[in-house]
Design brief:
- The protein has 232 residues and is an all-alpha fold.
- It is globular.
């Protein structure tokens, strides 16, 4: 039987990445439960939190935080939720990659994910490999999906950092980065609002378009590399 077999479960429970994955799944369940309770108690407000979470998951915390500030949220509303979502991101995707790489998972659905994450880590991991933990901390500061803590944690795994050291460095750097980006994005949103009340939303659109353009450029380069392989 492919996938997770009963004989593998003890191995997962005794591996650092396995425990991280369980923690991430538990955290995801609690977040969904919180959204469900919020939908019952204050459905209008919970939509903003759900939209901010969705933008974080799809684009990155830069987009999620910009949406929060454009919606009139405060630091206490924006920062903790984005920290929580980024923590959830790392606790799920990093262990999935590590466990699949170590062949503890044999799930066909994960093969393309592992390949994409490995490719992104290889392409963007030069600075981390050169400077180690210091390079990893700098890498995590970039607030987009394919350049932040998820890819950073995978790079940390590939260069041989111990799981809990890797997780600690990535999450602490992420929390500092989110705090600093929050200050900047809040100021930008407030400044844009002085020109027009819709200007903060234009800032959000710009961030999303930059992220999408970067993703499309990355895919275009990959296709070009496949069609026209480099000849030395």
């Amino acid at each position: 039987m492919r996938g997770i077999t009963p004989s593998i479960l003890p191995t997962l429970l005794h591996s650092a990445e396995g425990r991280m994955l369980l923690a991430g799944l538990a955290l995801a369940g609690l977040l969904l439960l919180g959204f469900g309770i919020g939908w019952t108690l204050f459905p209008d407000s919970i939509l903003q939190y759900a939209a901010m979470t969705g933008l974080n998951l799809l684009i990155g915390p830069g987009a999620g935080m910009t949406f929060g500030y454009a919606s009139g949220m405060t630091h206490l509303q924006v920062v903790p939720l984005n920290m929580l979502v980024e923590t959830l991101h790392v606790l799920v995707f990093y262990p999935l990659f590590a466990l699949s790489w170590q062949h503890l998972f044999d799930l066909p659905a994960l093969k393309s994910f592992v390949a994409r994450m490995h490719e992104a880590a290889e392409l963007r991991g030069g600075m981390v490999r050169k400077f180690g933990i210091a390079g990893l901390m700098v890498f995590v500061f970039v607030p987009f999906w394919m350049t932040g803590p998820v890819i950073g944690s995978i790079i940390g795994f590939l260069i041989g950092l111990r799981p809990w050291v890797n997780l600690t460095v990535v999450l602490l750097s992420t929390y500092v980065a989110i705090s600093l980006w929050a200050l900047l994005l809040n100021e930008l949103s407030a400044w844009a609002a002085t020109f027009n009340r819709l200007a903060p939303w234009a800032l959000l659109v710009a961030i999303v378009l930059i992220a999408v353009a970067g993703h499309l450029l990355h895919r275009s380069r990959n296709r070009h590399a496949i069609v026209h392989p480099r000849r030395d």
